[in-house]
Amino acid sequence: MSTIYIHWPFCLSKCNYCDFNSVATDGLIDFDFWLRLYRAASLRFFDDFYKGEQITSIYFGGGTPSLLTPSFISGIITLICDRCRISDNPEITLEANPKTIDLPKANGFRSAGINRLSIGVQSLIDADLKILGRIHDAEEAINCVLEMSEIFDNLSIDMIYNRPGQKLESWIDELSTALSSFSIQHISLYELIIEDGTAIKKMIDDGVLPATNRGSDFIEATWKTAEDFGFHKYEISNFAKPGFEGRHNISYWRYEDYYGIGPGAHSRIGRHNGGKLAIEQVSDINDWINFVENALPPEIIELSEKDEFNERLIMGLRAEVGIDLDHNFLDHNKIQFLLENSYIMLREGRVVLTNDGFMRLNLIVEYLSSK
Ligand SMILES: C[S@@+](CC[C@H](N)C(=O)[O-])C[C@H]1O[C@@H](n2cnc3c(N)ncnc32)[C@H](O)[C@@H]1O
Ligand code: SF4
Questions:
Q1: Which amino acid residue places its CA nearest to atom 19 of ligand 1?
Q2: Ligand approaching nearest to the C-alpha of 12
Q3: CATH at 112
Q4: Which of 193, 208, 203 is nearest to 161 (CA)?
Q5: Which of 166, 229, 310, 356 is the most exposed place for a label (fewest CB within 10 A)?
Q6: pLDDT classification of 272: cutoffs 50, 70, 90
């Protein structure tokens, strides 16, 4: 079982905190040109690498894929269905920015095959949306969620916490409002990461905004609030009503294969003799156009067994899927130590982090991956 990720790199403007592979556009996009390009890129990629296994989910991420038209989405989904073996009832997600989707467009996406929508809400406070550099205000975000919940019965929102100057009590009020007033089945709650080179980093460095501290109190209160409202934590930043866990991301955390298409998209593809290929398409948009138009080869790395183990750790330990206790690279003395200190538990033959362990995720990954 594998999944497909389509990366759309354009946004209406660049948010202050974002270092994803995305660039601002004036919105004047030649969709016919881009659809031809994505079709060519997909066909070639599947011809070269697809092994005929079942595809269980498709994810349109970005960037802002809600800038795309329903007919573009339909064109890509049709191509994938023609070329690949799709499972019954695949999960097909589209990420949306509230400023770029309305009812007619959402209905169009639904008819094109999108059955899960993930809206970037980020905050319900206008002043904080400004700090984050979002192009919508709180009212627009709220109206967007209310409207989209009429169309999608598998709806997720993203929010960001531990923003500069944010008080814990105010955040928990804000989160509780979102969880109690929206009809959503899933929520991603990300602690703000201040990435190098972003506008928010500069504002903090220049003293325009206060610095944030890594907040275990924020994390714990966020997890507890989500659980109190019936959203089960199945990964450090992802919470779902029972049965609505994002299947696409679970597949990443299980370290299953995925085919990534678009500027900077990554793939992990198992080989017939075992082992995996890591493939990355060029990230610069003009280079990517050149890469597709001239059928240039992508960058391919054969992962060593140790590389694979390290990736398995990083992906699996983030989530409740954990990793297989029988993995031959796992040092059982270290597992014993982590068990004795209650950082991990064993569940159905798998190593899963406890909440104390999740707080030390990076340290534990480093500990288990070192000799
Ligand atoms: C590709 S965006 C989602 C869709 C759309 N582009 C939008 O922003 O509305 C993925 C999500 O990652 C989160 N994110 C991005 N950069 C982050 C950062 N530096 N710290 C925390 N969360 C971040 C945001 O919540 C964002 O919604
Ligand atoms: S809209 Fe999303 S992808 Fe685009 S800059 Fe903002 S957070 Fe990044």
A1: 193
A2: 2
A3: 3.20.20.70
A4: 193
A5: 356
A6: confident
